[in-house]
Specification:
heterodimer, A: mainly alpha, Histone, subunit A, two-stranded antiparallel sheet, B: 38% helix, globular
């Protein structure tokens, strides 16, 4: 397990869209390093020929009949939105000036 | 404290049905108890994040009206319940213990919520939890810690510390928990209550705010095994709204609890898991566990030692699989459709608002797990860590299969230690993660497991849990064993373990 640098932690935070303060980055770098060192224990298990399990139940796709049924009203959904306008979610600018 | 709050859910339902007491009186007695002991983030038990006084009294009055109209009431009608605040309720806020959802009112009820209401169960309010059900102490709640009714300076377990503490403080006779790595069972163990994690897919996850979708399972919490079984029956069963819900009949857990209470386990084969004990386990926990194993023999069970060699790797596999799913599930908290939004002042774009909101809205543990998951799923590490963890998951399920070919149930302590002091492990994630050592394998394999009171540790006088594991869809075996142990201990102790807990009178006022 390579030790994880502060720069890598900053990169991960960016990927995860987490704005972290500098002291948080330092603190997390140490903790992540420690946790990753511990979970690396899984690599000790000889499991080359073992199939992975992603889920506890052996389920494949579950289908239902394609029939219309009631759904949530726009009003009830938008009531919980941070901002709404004209019956829609209002969001901050998503495209840069140059786009 | 009113005598009503000391009664079991089964007794209360019978009394309401017979007209000996009204559902409104029962509900009021519990609301009074909450007012007496629950307090706030600063003092008291602080099991509840929200108490719905008016809604609870209205639901109780509706039960009384139905009875007056001659309607047949269900087996738990009129009984109050504390609902973990990670399950959606259309008429109450649902926070998941997070700032990012503070004040959020879901537009819909979870299937569990709907089933509770349909059964005439009175929802008193929403209970505290570690943020997004991630933790073993309830210290990761954004709204303050819950305190253990046995000792208010100690943790009540987690993530469902609020639900377990509400039972132990006699604020509610029933509660709902959710269990991703032990969040029903570990709080039950450290508060001297009963907690059951049903088979994965046994209870619908629709409306359960996701932590790790392949591991999360809602289940019943109570003070007695029969009460847990009655609640299990209300919430379990197939739900077309959850594609991972099992389309098979619910095992007859109530009959199993009643049979178990007769105290005869002749013919039952019990396996003691060799790997779940020894170094790192508190002496008093091991002593009570050994007593419980001796009791099982005395009740007629055939006890053998069983080896599950890959359980040793359960914690490591779990802390790769869980954060990977968490990092994906918590991506939905993007400040756009619900919850907190920070920095939307017209000068910032959506991505920046998203990052600011998540940075301020999530607590330390949520951030750690999101980061861990992001790392484990990133290219270059995926095969070595996440992929390998999934293979270990297969090996753990195979260990269970091999064990259940020899025995009917497996047993271990629920958690390696009793309740620890608040603050002791809050910034030591690895030490905190060790709490779930015994409970995690059942989440990875999806089988049913439960914790039952097993006495008090000699060194600190705090509750110890007996962990019982059963195969997939054999949830009834948990209740059989739990009820047998419960009735034998009740005879030995002269009552339930909780009767030895402090009375807490007036501490929340």
């Amino acid at each position: 397990m390579p030790s994880i640098s502060r720069e890598e932690v900053a990169h991960l935070a960016h990927l995860a869209r987490l704005d972290l303060a500098p002291d948080e980055l330092d603190h997390l770098a140490g903790q992540l390093d420690q946790i990753l060192g511990a979970v690396a224990q899984v690599t000790e298990v000889a499991a080359d020929d073992i199939p992975p399990t992603s889920h506890a139940l052996p389920l494949t796709n579950v289908f239902r009949a394609d029939e219309p049924r009631p759904c949530l009203t726009p009003e009830s959904v938008l009531a919980a939105a941070p901002a709404a306008e004209d019956g829609r979610f209002r969001v901050p600018q998503i495209l840069g000036e140059e786009q | 404290m009113s005598g009503l709050t000391r009664r079991t859910a089964a007794e209360l339902a019978t009394a309401v049905k017979a007209g000996d007491v009204s559902a409104v009186e029962v509900t009021q007695a519990h609301l009074d108890r909450i007012a007496e002991v629950d307090g706030s983030a600063e003092a008291g038990v602080h099991a509840f994040l929200h108490v719905d006084t008016d809604g609870a009294l209205a639901a109780a009055a509706a039960v009384d009206a139905r009875r007056a109209a001659g309607e047949e009431l269900g087996p738990l009608a009129g009984v109050p319940l504390a609902l973990k605040d990670v399950i959606t309720t259309a008429d109450m806020p649902t926070t998941a213990g997070s700032r990012i959802l503070e004040g959020w009112r879901p537009p819909y009820d979870a299937t569990v919520t709907r089933r509770l209401r349909d059964a005439g169960i009175v929802i008193l309010g929403k209970t505290n939890l570690d943020e997004f059900a991630m933790g073993s102490s309830t210290e990761n709640s954004a709204f303050g810690v819950t305190r253990n009714p046995w000792d208010l300076t100690r943790i009540p377990g987690g993530s469902g510390g609020g639900s377990a503490a509400s039972l132990a403080a006699y604020e509610a006779p029933l509660a709902i928990g959710t269990d991703t790595g032990g969040s029903i069972r570990q709080p039950a163990a450290v508060t001297g209550t009963v907690g059951v994690k049903p088979t994965y897919g046994g209870v619908s996850r629709y409306g359960l705010i996701a932590c790790a979708s392949s591991l999360d399972q809602a289940g019943p919490c109570a003070r007695t095994v029969l009460d847990a079984a009655l609640l299990h029956t209300v919430i379990a069963g197939h739900d077309p709204l959850d594609s991972t819900s099992i389309a098979q009949p619910v095992p007859d857990v109530v009959a199993a609890a009643k049979r178990g209470a007769e105290g005869d386990l002749t013919g039952l084969r019990v396996g003691v898991v060799k790997e779940l004990g020894g170094e790192g386990y508190q002496a008093g926990v091991e002593a009570r566990f050994n007593d419980a194993v001796a009791l099982l023999s005395k009740l007629g069970a055939e006890v053998v030692e069983v080896s599950c060699p890959h359980f040793t790797y359960g914690l490591a596999a779990y802390y790769l699989i869980l954060p990977s799913e968490v990092s994906s599930n918590l991506a939905r908290f993007d400040a756009m459709r619900y919850g907190l939004r920070v920095g939307d002042d017209g000068s910032r774009g959506a991505e920046e608002v998203m990052s600011l909101t998540r940075g301020q809205g999530f607590g330390a543990e949520a951030k750690r797990r999101i980061m861990l998951g992001t790392y484990a799923l990133s290219s270059g590490y995926y095969d070595a860590y996440y992929g390998q963890a999934q293979k270990v998951r297969t090996l753990i399920a195979r260990d269970f299969d091999a064990a259940f070919a020899q025995v009917d149930v497996l047993v271990s302590p629920t958690t390696p230690t009793t309740a620890f002091p608040i603050g002791e492990k809050v910034d030591d994630p690895l030490a905190m993660y060790m709490n779930d050592l015994c409970t995690i394998p059942s989440n990875l394999a999806g089988n049913a497991s439960a914790s039952f009171p097993a006495g008090l540790a000699d060194e600190d006088g705090l509750p110890v849990g007996l962990h019982v594991m059963a195969p997939v869809l054999a949830d009834d075996r948990l209740y059989l064993v739990g009820a047998a142990v419960e009735s034998a201990y009740a005879a030995q102790w002269g009552g339930t373990l909780l009767e030895q807990a402090p009375a807490l009178e007036g501490i929340g006022q």
